[in-house]
Specification:
It is a single chain. The radius of gyration is 19 Å and the shape is globular. The chain has a single domain, classed as ABC transporter involved in vitamin B12 uptake, BtuC (Orthogonal Bundle), CATH 1.10.3470. It is mainly alpha-helical. The termini are far apart. The longest helix is centred in the N-terminal third of the chain and has 32 residues.
């Protein structure tokens, strides 16, 4: 059971990073973006490309970092993937969501997000194929922390958890200690009033997409580091990410973080009593339970 708990914490950290960007967009632009999970795929494959590129140009970067399977090339590729995915999110908004937002209805944006998810997923499949890929073929053995009960932890898992918590801490500092953080909250609460005070709404929206895309990219790379990379990462994670967002409360970044850990731990702890084939249904049950008991989520506020 302790092993499932530790695995759930790791999964929860990845879901939290994906849910942060989703809850920011949902709160500010008032639509459920079902293509957000595909940003994880974009980030994972962008890192794969630059990892291979750096390793080919500078073979010294292909060496592993200490006990990790992570190479220096992949470490650098994470930051490039975050930047490119953030720009990709902005581009998608400019080409699709912005036009619908100005001329259409919120429900039209939801349908458009479904379409974008399919387009991105199939473009990745077309470019990289349907087979799964790995960042490295090296085998990293887990460290045995305990024999009774048996607890195994991989160095990569510890690295992912530390990095996820670091990114969340940086975002917390930005939102709570910088002018942008106050601006973001003002726009999310009342966009019209924020514009009257001189805040450029378009700039805040662009920065929001960049932050959400960058965090999603990091989550995608971290997911691929502990699993296999394939074009359907977004499809597999979209429901858990939405569950984390709903549990935490739409618009609450701290709620998204907590919701991600709740969903990740619950899905892994369910394996103790349920066959693995039923695990994907756990996010559904969590969403239903939260909507029945507390429709606004743990930290969400009722909106008019």
């Amino acid at each position: 059971m302790i092993q499932h708990l530790l695995d759930g914490i790791l999964v929860g950290s990845i879901l939290s990073m994906g849910a942060i960007g989703l809850t920011m967009v949902m709160h500010m632009l008032r639509f459920a973006n079902f293509s957000h999970a595909e940003l994880l795929s974009i980030g994972a494959y962008a890192a794969l490309v630059f990892d291979g590129l750096f390793s080919a140009i500078l073979p010294a970067l292909a060496t592993s970092i200490g006990p990790l399977s992570l190479t220096w090339a992949l470490f650098l590729s994470i930051f490039i993937a975050m930047g490119l995915t953030g720009l990709s999110a902005v581009l998608i908004d400019m080409l699709v969501f912005k036009r619908i937002r100005e001329n259409g209805h919120e429900l039209s944006m939801v349908f458009a997000s479904f379409g974008m998810a399919l387009i991105v997923r199939n473009l990745i499949s077309l470019g990289f194929g349907l087979k799964t890929r790995l960042y490295t073929e090296d085998i990293v053995f887990a460290v045995r922390l305990s024999d009774d009960p048996l607890i195994l932890v991989k160095p990569d898992q510890v690295f992912v958890l530390i990095c996820a918590l670091f990114f969340m801490a940086v975002l917390h500092f930005v939102l709570s200690r910088t002018t942008f953080g106050y601006t973001l909250r003002a726009v999310a609460e009342n966009p019209t009033l924020a514009q009257v005070t001189g805040i450029r709404l378009s700039t805040v929206i662009v920065i929001t997409w960049i932050i959400g895309g960058a965090l999603a990219a990091a989550a995608g790379v971290f997911y691929g580091l502990n699993n296999q990379i394939n074009p359907v990462i977004g499809r597999d994670l979209v429901l858990p990410i939405f569950a984390a967002t709903i549990v935490g409360g739409i618009g609450s970044i701290y709620g998204a973080v907590l919701g991600g850990f709740i969903v990740g731990i619950a899905a892994n702890m369910a394996l103790v009593i349920l066959p693995s084939g039923y695990s994907p249904a756990v996010p559904f049950l969590i969403i239903l339970a939260v909507l029945l008991v507390r429709p606004n989520g743990l930290f969400g506020e009722e909106r008019t």
